[in-house]
Amino acid sequence: MDIKKLREIFEDNYEELKYETGRSITLNMKEFAWQQVKLYYEKLGKVAKNMTEAEVKLILPEQVTPKGKKYTIEGIVDIVEKEDKITMYDIKTHNVEEVRNDKDLYRGQLNMYAYMWKNLKGTEINNMAVIATAPSSELRQATGIGDEIAVDIIDDWNPIVELEIDNNEVEKQIRCFGETVDKIEEGEFKAPSLSKLKEVKKGQKAPFGTAVCRHCDARHSCNSYSQYINKVKLDEEILEVAESEDLVEQDEWKDAFMK
Ligand code: SF4
């Protein structure tokens, strides 16, 4: 399939989603999404073609928190089965460096999904990986001017981060989810201050507000994030690392409040 055809499919898909959800997105956001789709296709077309099951919904119901509250854990993964080996992929719109620098976080989640898969299908996951689709800054620069992608840059880009299988992670994850549910249920949470959002954690390039908050479902009702993304009080240093994802986020933020 050539890029033109891919774009047509992307546009059709976008129109369908718009119709189904009744929501549209800004032009910036749409182009950002298109870049990710295009790069995913260019780089991972082979993986995508080999998927034996796409968007498998995993559910672990009837979990009970340490304080006796019931909750359900859910996740969505893609599966490749080849030569009696099963590989589980979790596609995330995160930056690959963030995933590499915070492997423990992702390892816990994927081991949880492997456990849920076994409960559902009765087979073991042999390998697992995150596919981090957000393009690196080099890729963004290379693709920003059109559909042509510099071959050597895309060759160097590896969005697949393999993670180790560790059954000990499951119990730890369930306990951690349970404790978090208890805290949420009891209203025991508050967003960190703007200064925390501006901090760059060791091993990461982007500040907390970009690396973490950008993926948080609560961000549109979070005051700290509102200050961060709208660049209130942001200093020069942070402005340098708050790149195009943040500009897209600014659009999304405005969009969310204009509805
Ligand atoms: S956006 Fe989410 S992760 Fe970021 S400070 Fe607010 S609540 Fe916390």
In short:
By secondary structure, the chain is α+β, with helices and mostly antiparallel strands. It has helices at residues 3-21, 27-50, 96-101, 103-121, 137-143, 151-156, 168-185, 194-198, 208-211, 223-229, 236-241, 244-258, and strands at residues 53-64, 70-82, 85-95, 127-134, 160-163. Pfam families: PDDEXK_1.
Question: Mind explaining what this structure looks like?
Answer:
The mean pLDDT is 82. The relative contact order is 0.12. The protein has helices spanning 3-21, 27-50, 96-101, 103-121, 137-143, 151-156, 168-185, 194-198, 208-211, 223-229, 236-241, 244-258; strands at residues 53-64, 70-82, 85-95, 127-134, 160-163. Strands 1-2-3-4-5 form a five-stranded mixed sheet, sandwiched between helices. The chain contains twelve helices and five strands. The chain is globular. With 259 residues, the protein is of the alpha+beta class. It has two domains: 44-185; 194-258, no CATH class. Residues 38-223 form the PD-(D/E)XK endonuclease-like domain. Keywords: ATP-binding, DNA damage, DNA repair, DNA-binding, Helicase, Hydrolase, Nucleotide-binding.
